Amino acid sequence: MIVAFSVTPLGVGEDVGEYVADAVRVVRESGLPHRTDAMFTSVEGEWDEVMDVVKRAVAAVEARAPRVSLVLKADIRPGVRDGLTSKVETVERILAAE
Questions:
Q1: In angstroms, what CA-CA distances link 4 with 13, 42, 66, 81?
Q2: How far are the Cα atoms of 10, 50, 88, 98 from residue 34, in angstroms, in the given order?
Q3: I need a labelling partner for 56 at 20 to 30 A (CA). Which of 3, 42, 43, 84 fits?
Q4: Thiamine-binding protein domain spans which residues (predicted)?
Q5: pLDDT, tens only, 3-51
């Protein structure tokens, strides 16, 4: 399973980098495969372990912000491993062949 999620603190002003870093730190410390870009952090693993990471990332932001917004998208595909890499490689291979 791959989950792409975004945790946004509300009520703390425009500069939210420190809060987002708290969430990303949780993901990195989880040991699960992950990627972070300007909009989302994606994490790959089994249902319970991925959702636990998301929950702890939200809690890390919630500890310092009065309100938290969570956006989450999941690709639930049992038996698939290394989807974070293989999905991108497939697209790159198609584009390279053009």
A1: 24, 4, 23, 16
A2: 24, 10, 13, 29
A3: 84
A4: 3-92
A5: 999 999 999 999 999 999 999 999 999 999 999 999 999 999 999 999 9
